[in-house]
User: Which sequence fits this backbone?
């Protein structure tokens, strides 16, 4: 089997965002598009010859075709072994788990996460490093530089590899090992949690619903929740991964998981509800009649972590992304542990995790995780909640009431304006940036501004600096507004506007979040002149 060198020309749009390169499927289906970026990865990674790589994705449309392309290119580029999930399937946290367990050089993960799938949907690709986490910015920038100068890529001419039969086979000199995509990950979960206590919870009549959204976590939920923990068959719904996610948006939030939210409403509703996204790294947590915001979820888990075997000795520290609410900070202060504030993007937690500075971390975009892997992890978050519920024998509503009574409540919301023309989005951010220096000391909407700045981050471990990571306006009463352009969309620009209001211990903790935040949300839109600059009068998604 002789490697073939294929001439090509660069594409100009292959700069990875916060979670790799995401584009419409039709973009990836262009001749040479995927190949160019994969070759740029191979050219940019040191030690590729003879190495082991992990490969898999969320099963969305184009996943299997892309896996075959990457296998043949890996063989031509001297990779020694590829470990690939059966059927080309591997959740993002499971890929991180396998990379770490195998001591692999890294892995290629195929997913556009929570973005829609199908022929008219989105596709994505990213490289995870040897620690199992997303490639740092220095590496993704190297991939981008290479993509702008590439003139050829290498592949082999060969029949497609059998991805459906477990075991090892050869592709030229390279070994291809097809593994059960769930086994290693489930084994890791068994080592972290009190599985006997969770089994006892289910045996007591506790009922839950897990919505896999026809995405990658279906097989993981069935194996772990139903087979290993004894939850009744059918606890995992929409559990068969589909290339188009059943025509739905695989994003576990109040806007896209309305059936699950409805199922958790009413006196006869299940005790617990959860959902995960396209590639399995996000989660939504619900109790009977209760939605737990992601910012509150990480705070509650940190406050209750010692009930879980893996964290019984206490937490080293915690971290949150800058737009995530300050609820976690208050728990950290009470525990006497550090709380780090990072830019959005899981890769920024990686150095803190690798240095042993933190045990738990989370971000407001429905991502929660710990030091067990180097990705956010939806199924892990669900099991963490189940372990806490099994230990405390309280309802989700009771735990939330107790938490707010102890630490106060941070009402939190986010408005997403999707598909904005890029020039309009840039004008909006530039206009806000120009206003910031003059805001401190003024009063807006009856609130006194104490600080207004643009977030920059210096990594406390490696000293790397990341600028322009979001615009912040903070008020004397503890309220805050944050603006940033998202790096996970595939067309136009997505403006995310975040707002939070703190209600201290003894305050009113029983309001609906949209009611509590109504005036702050209106102020955020007015300050940014969203309607004038974008023509939008309402967000596309409000959570």
Assistant:
């Amino acid at each position: 089997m002789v490697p073939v060198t294929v001439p090509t020309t660069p594409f100009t749009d292959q700069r990875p965002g916060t979670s790799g390169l995401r584009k419409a499927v039709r973009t990836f289906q262009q001749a040479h598009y995927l190949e160019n970026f994969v070759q740029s990865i191979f050219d940019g990674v040191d030690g590729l010859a003879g190495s082991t790589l992990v490969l898999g994705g969320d099963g969305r449309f184009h996943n299997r075709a892309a896996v075959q392309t990457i296998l043949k290119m890996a063989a031509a580029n001297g990779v020694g072994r590829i470990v690939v999930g059966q059927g080309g399937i591997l959740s993002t946290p499971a890929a991180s788990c396998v990379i770490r367990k195998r001591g692999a050089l890294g892995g290629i993960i195929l997913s556009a996460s929570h973005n829609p799938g199908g022929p008219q949907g989105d596709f994505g690709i990213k490289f995870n490093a040897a620690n199992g986490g997303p490639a740092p910015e220095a590496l993704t920038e190297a991939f981008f530089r290479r993509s702008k100068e590439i003139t050829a890529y290498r592949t082999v001419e060969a029949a497609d590899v059998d991805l459906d039969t477990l075991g090892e086979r050869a592709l030229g000199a390279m070994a291809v090992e097809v593994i059960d995509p769930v086994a290693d990950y489930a084994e890791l979960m068994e080592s972290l949690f009190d599985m006997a206590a969770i089994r006892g919870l289910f045996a007591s009549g506790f009922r839950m619903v897990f919505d896999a959204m026809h995405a990658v976590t279906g097989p993981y939920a069935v194996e772990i929740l139903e087979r290993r923990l004894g939850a009744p068959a059918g606890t995992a719904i929409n559990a068969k991964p589909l290339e188009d996610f059943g025509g739905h948006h695989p994003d576990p939030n109040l806007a896209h998981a309305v059936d699950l939210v409805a199922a958790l409403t009413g006196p006869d509703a299940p005790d617990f509800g959860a959902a995960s996204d396209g590639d399995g790294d996000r989660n939504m947590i619900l109790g009977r009649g209760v939605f737990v915001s992601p910012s509150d979820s990480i705070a509650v888990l940190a406050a209750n972590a010692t009930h879980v075997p893996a964290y019984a000795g206490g937490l080293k520290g915690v971290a949150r992304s800058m737009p995530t609410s300050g609820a976690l900070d208050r728990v950290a202060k009470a525990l006497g542990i550090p709380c780090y504030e990072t830019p959005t993007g899981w890769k920024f937690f990686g150095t803190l995790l690798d240095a042993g500075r933190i045990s738990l971390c989370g971000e407001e975009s429905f991502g929660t995780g710990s030091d067990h892997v180097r990705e956010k992890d939806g199924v892990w978050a669900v099991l963490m909640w189940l372990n806490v519920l099994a230990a405390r024998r309280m309802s989700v509503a009771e735990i939330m009431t107790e938490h707010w009574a102890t630490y106060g409540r941070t009402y939190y919301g986010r408005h997403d304006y999707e598909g904005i023309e890029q020039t309009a989005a840039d004008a909006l951010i530039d206009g806000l940036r120009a206003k910031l220096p003059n805001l401190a000391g003024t009063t807006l909407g009856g609130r006194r501004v104490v600080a207004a700045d643009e977030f920059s981050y210096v990594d406390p471990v490696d000293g790397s600096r990341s600028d322009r990571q979001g615009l912040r306006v903070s008020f004397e009463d503890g309220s805050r507004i944050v603006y940033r352009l998202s790096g996970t969309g595939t067309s136009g620009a997505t403006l995310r506007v975040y707002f939070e209001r703190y209600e201290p211990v003894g305050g009113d903790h029983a309001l609906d979040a949209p009611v509590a935040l109504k005036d702050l949300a209106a102020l955020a839109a007015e300050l940014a002149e969203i309607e004038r600059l974008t023509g939008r009068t309402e967000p596309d998604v409000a959570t």
In short: Residues 378-392 form the longest helix (15 residues).
